[in-house]
Batch of 4 targets.
Target 1
Amino acid sequence: MTKKIFITGSEGFIGSHLLEKLVKKNYKVKALCLYNSFNTWGWLDTLDKEILQDVEIVTGDIRDKDLIVKNTKKMDYVINLAALIAIPYSYEAVESFIQTNIIGLNNVLSASLKNNCRVIHTSTSEVYGNADSFPIKEENKVFAKSPYAATKIAGDQLCFSYNRSFNLPITVIRPFNTFGPRQSLRAIIPTIITQALLNNGVIKLGNIYPKRNFNYIKDIVHGFDKALNLKKNYGDVINIGGNFEISIKDLVNLVSKIIDKEIIVKTDKYRYRPKKGEVNRLISSKTKSYKVLKWKPKYDNKKMFFQALTETVNWYSSNLKFYESKSKIYNI
């Protein structure tokens, strides 16, 4: 029987890639796009028409409870990717993050409970803050270092409570830093690439010493797909992240090598996080994701990471038109 899946946040970076994969696997997909006055569908507007012809697209907002209840009827799964995610913006607009990441999520959970849907909710590695042991396991304590992280922790706990209190079948997927085509300029890799391409190698960055486990989008959506086949472990959280890690400084050097141009880094104080808000290192344990999901990341060593980064740079080089108009907004 074909799985019927309702996916929120489908117009975004991870959502658009996941939607493509689900359609190619012949799942029946209904996609929620955040309504806007231009009636655009984000990255879905750029997808092959053969992909979109098999998708029912709904415009709206997860903060609208009635809309979510209506559109989750007769769905087997709800994959929730809708969230406000820009960490710097969370310092300025805390209530907006609460409204979407907590109250909006509660609408998704209550609608799923009413309509008998299984839920896959998207968390974030930012919930771990500065971890006290590495690689980071799911049982590590959570510690919010930004309002964004605080709302995601609250959202995770809300998910667990729905499972424990009402038996809602739910899995929380916790992706570590993700990169690839279509990512917004709020993230470090597209920021480095687009600045280097648009400004003849001169880029502005904040702290270049934190280390991250960057995961290619193809590996991340593979993890979500694996979660759809779970027969148990509901009410659980699973990290999705590899073991290869790299500092921002070394990442800049790799991009420089790929574009064959020297990159000059200029320090920009406005790009630093608050001193107490910086997360110095994020690297995931793969033990549980392999045991529970049988998830094996392909791009999890220096050679494969370089291949994925090259593919990403080439995509941005061919699609700068999507980012040139935003360059002033993001101070590029």
Target 2
Amino acid sequence: MSRLKVAVVGAGYFAQLHHEAWMRMERVELAGICDMNAEAAEAAAQTHGVTAYTDVADMLADTRPDLVDIVTPPPSHLALIRVCMDNKVAVICQKPFCQTPEQAREAVVLSQNAGRFIAVHENFRFQPWYRKTRQLLDEKVFGQVYQITYRLRPGDGQGPDAYMARQPYFQKMPKLLIHETGVHWIDTFRYLFGNPTAVLADLRRLNPVIAGEDAGIVIFDLPNGVRGVLDGNRLADHAADNTRRTMGEMLIEGADATLRLSGQGELWLRKHGSMQEIQVPCDFVDTVFGGDCVFNLCAHVAEHMLDGGELENEASDYLVVQAAERAAYQSTEKRCWIDVASCL
């Protein structure tokens, strides 16, 4: 394949990052943008010089894309995936992937029957600081790794107007901290250390205006004795000139070294027994969301389709993330450890 034709479903706040990412790729053609909101679809399409649609089937018939990028809320995912698979078109689907694990498994079956992949748009693993961290792990810089701790502190969840400026539907989601946001780090933890096997969680709601939980601590058993800790609080912030850059701070502790991710996207390495931190070079584009992670993921999928590169986060592999998510909610309800395998 010499060129890749992409159509996007979604013209909302975050979908605009996807449109812009595809337009920056030389070997990719953005063929159409679809949204049920005709005004939003038309505005996005005019921006990029493509055709606007309000019906995905019409867009597929007119543009005949190689790939459809679904950037819509979870309740719409399964129906959109079904249309794409009926038309034998590969899919990238935004997270949270489908509305329930049962829908996600159905989507996987549709994909397998159609012989077309679904890649979950789980973009945080494509943030430059986590790719560099993976490189350091491969280089055995840490020795035996004891623990990874991530403190999620975006600071956008306070007061009656929480989330209204960007994603107002957050207020009505019955599950928020883990289902919408925490899955980023479940996937990142497994990217760095492997799939979690058990979960212990304590989730709670601090802001009474929202429906779901916005704070909590989740502990993951990871392979090789590594413990993962996700300490999340959407009301609290962290030291950064842009709290959405990293959305918090990370610490990886090992026998030989400790690595710290700051809110500025900086990685600092300290050898065991030393008082001195050394900055690890980590170049990234700081003008777009998350170190340009949306572009990085889209480019990764494009490389797979154009040149046959390895594909990360196929939907069938991603089901373990949703199982760990479900385990976190069950653990909070039952106040005990939950095996991830029991939630698959």
Target 3
Amino acid sequence: MKKIIMLLVALLSYSFSATNGDILLYKIANKDHKITAQTLADGLTVNGYVVAKNQDMNGPYQKQFKTTTFESYNLMSVYHPDTSVALVPKYAKSGIFTPFSIATYQRKGEDDFYIALLSASAQENILKVKDTLITKLETLNKETIHKILPTAVETSLPYSNIPTDKALYTKYSFEVEDADAMEARGDLMMMMESGMKPSGFVVANYIDFNKVLKEEKHEEYMFYDAYSLCKLKIIYELSKNKPEAGAFAPCTMVIYHKKGSNKTEIVTLSIENLTSTLAIKDKKLLDMLVKAQGTMKSIIEDAAE
């Protein structure tokens, strides 16, 4: 694992519209507070989705920062098995949306409950892939949300995204012989986890997605691991003014080794997704995000030495 090749994939063709089409946002009247994140999670599960995690963030906000502007704020890690099992063997990098993130929130003193998730066009632009599986999943997501919450209204964000020509995902490749891949995987993760904890990164959830693939007779990978990562300070600061930022959190990092490739690869979302989609201009926030990405880069590279 001595040789590391980092591939920064710059999506120069990233397209932007006059409105912010990157995030699907739903508003539901909820004056009586009967609708909760669990309402959505239960409905998704009934309709064939896997809700790998439904994390209350309001409690940690109050505990660590002593204040919150939300009545409720939850981050979900979700995937639909049929779509993911079809996509991952075709595009290994697509696992950064297996699971994908959904944010639900309701501010204190307000009567509306919100749901935010990335649109199909945003996922396609990030992956630089056009596939009907992605657009079909969006259609299914919309239909399912309306099925669970019939009064949900699709609404728009009050700002446009900011164009960027920077990398929207980062891929790291490590030269590892297939015969050594499983042992190297354990060493890599042990080193990464020891680096993440003191840096404030939390593994919110882990999925052995290769197990899911094998159940459906897909044997392309020696392993395929999905880690949902979160840094509380960052999502707390972002959510103050732009709670829809939860459509990116927790952020999925995938680590996999394809049979016959003699290389282990890691794919992560880049900070530019947040800064461009959320139109972040605040220097303090920008510096915090850049620093977090630099820290994660160092953690990955140090673990591979």
Target 4
Amino acid sequence: MAENKPTATVAKSATSVQPKKEGNAISWIAPVACIVAGYSIWRFLLGNPSNFERPNVGGNAFWPLHEGPHNALVRMYEGGIIVPLLIGLFLMVIVFAIERALTIGKATGKGSNAEFVRKVQYHLANKNIQAALQECDKQKGSVGNVMKAGLRKYEEMTTNTELDTDQKILAIQKEVEEATALELPMLEKNLVFLSTITSLATLVALLGTVMGMIRSFASLGEEGGSAAASKLAVGISEALYNTALGIGTSAVALVFYNVYTTRIDSITYGIDESGFTLTQSFASLYK
């Protein structure tokens, strides 16, 4: 009888990729802190009684009514209770823009990713895996991390005698995919705040504008003559402050969102190129 030889299968070796244990407390602390800061700026900075000719003519401690603002910036206080929310949204844009800039800047690594990949290709062509790993340590960033994880599996597969070439390449590809799956969420985290604020700020501003117009026309119905017309003009001007602040916040959020998604796309391309480099190098050198 013919002897049945067991076929080699892909070794289930432990992956060198380890999950990143990073908290995301900023995702719930920042919104609350920004809204509180927005109210504080509106209530105590813009709403300082010294900024008005006739302060404290009514209202309550939470929303005192002042009249006669000294300048156009202070008039934004009279835009109503929606204004502190819009200020808070603008502060959120600034906070998350800075947080993403630091994170993506760190993920980009040191130097050009394209030059880094070329150096790794050169070392692999000379079968100098240790030199390639040293380049990863110098480069750092997401591309360097993925390349390093793939290189460790690459090095392991060069001494593996149980698997054929195709199975070894599959093992390298799997290692790269696992490393990529851990890196990409870190890059895209918190971008949802910028994309949401892009739409939300405009809608909140529209709500503030409508509320201001309702108050203006209500005062027009209660009073008559030139005084009512004057109050209507002032009310419309105050309502439009909501629109201006909301549109400005949306525009800033949209710019940052597009800038960061472009940078993430560039990093993702570098990660894809690193995986292709490893598999092609192994296929050509270790047939």
